[in-house]
What we know:
Oligomer: single chain
Number of helices: 3
CATH class of the largest domain: Mainly Beta
Order of helices and strands: EEEEEHEEEEEEHEH
Number of strands: 12
CATH topology of the largest domain: Elongation Factor Tu (Ef-tu), domain 3
Mean pLDDT: 93
Shape: globular
Amino acid sequence: MFTGIVETTGRLVSRKLLGDAGKLIIETELAKEMERGASLAVNGTCLSVEEIDPQRNLLQFHVLAQTLDRTNLGVVREGKKVNLERPLKLGDRLGGHLVSGHVDCTAPILDIGQKGDDWIVEIALPEEQKMLMIDKGSIAVDGISLTVAHLLKDSFRVHIIPLTLELTNLSEKEVGDLVNLEMDMVGKYVLRRELLQEENNQG
């Protein structure tokens, strides 16, 4: 379980496709503190560390084809920043919101603008996710816990403060880039309960 508070960023060194899976190598100073088999959220995607090279600050991950297809890890260009967060520990403060590390979908950035010191990013909202989003609700964008500032018909906007821009990969994003989206976990359970109740009532 994660919080959506990005701990640091790393750089994608290489991505190799091996049949129906792939290998990602990421450069990060966290390599000195990680163990094989440990979990790490990469752009909000929970991955397991396969190999570590602490001398060169490298982490290697085995990534399934489904993960590459469902997330932006299959399209992020080598050399680009990725957001990294280690799992929440018992007793830690929950600074953002509960994030599972299971990405629901990707969506393109539609617009990037600036208002004062803050940046406003508009992201497309896939039809199948609309029921899970509310105005002023929480959403994880590339693993970053953000608040939905404006909910539109087919998109939503988030406001990015300078510190978030500095500490995450958002500083490198451009219009058209795909971002990973994970909808609020609480909303998923509420919707699931309502759907089951509706099925029972119809039965």
